[in-house]
Amino acid sequence: MADTGAGAFGTAEQEWASVGAATPSGAIRVKTTEQGLPLAVKVDQAELHRDPSQLAGELLRLCQRAAARAGLARRKQMEAAGMSAAALAATGLPTEADVARQEMLEEQDYDTEPQSWLRTV
Fold first, then answer.
1. What does the pLDDT read at residue 111?
2. pLDDT reported for residue 117
3. Roughly what angle, to the nearest 10 degrees, separates helices 96-109 and 52-80?
4. CB neighbours of 30 closer than 8 A, spacing ≥ 6?
5. Which residue from 19, 16, 43, 46 is spatially nearest to 29, judged by alpha carbons?
6. Whole-prediction pTM value?
7. What is the dihedral of CA 80, 82, 87, 91, to 10 degrees?
8. Which of 40, 42, 60 shows the shortest CA–CA distance to 52?
9. Is 114 helix (H, G, I), strand (E, B) or coil?
10. Contacts of 99 (CB under 8 A, 6+ apart)
């Protein structure tokens, strides 16, 4: 995990906002900043035997999902602090509808079928 205490990153009050995302099985988990920079990555041993490009794609997808969720959390913080709707729109942070739409598209594109040389009969 990232060091968020005093030191190179400042004081504890200046913590990075972070949110996580995981595969449906929980075999791959990431925690990122709202910009999508990974702070923590956990991959089960079995996942390391996958095709490297597929694993990399999965990690990237999860980082993007976590970043969108973190951006939404930041937007809600700003809204709770009294920021106007116009100012919130100018931040470019995603809305709940944006995040829901992105996650729905990911689920439609996500291939959950096992890859095998066997064909269905």
1. 55
2. 53
3. 170
4. 20, 21, 22, 38, 40, 41, 42, 59, 62, 63, 66
5. 43
6. 0.72
7. -30
8. 60
9. coil
10. 68, 69, 71, 72
CA-CA-CA-CA torsion sign (111, 97, 27, 47): positive
Residue type, 23: T
Amino acid at 88: L
Q: How many helices (H) and strands (E) does the chain have?
A: 3, 3
Residues 109 and 6: their CA atoms lie apart, in Å, by: 42
Name residues whose C-beta falls within 8 Å of residue 17's C-beta, 6 or more positions apart in sequence: 33, 34, 70, 73, 74
Sheet with 38-43, strands from edge to edge, namely 18-22, 28-33, 38-43
Structure confidence by residue, pLDDT tens digits, 52-64 = 999 999 999 999 9
**CA-CA distance, 71 to 66, in Å (whole number)?**
9
For 81, the token pair is 């602090």
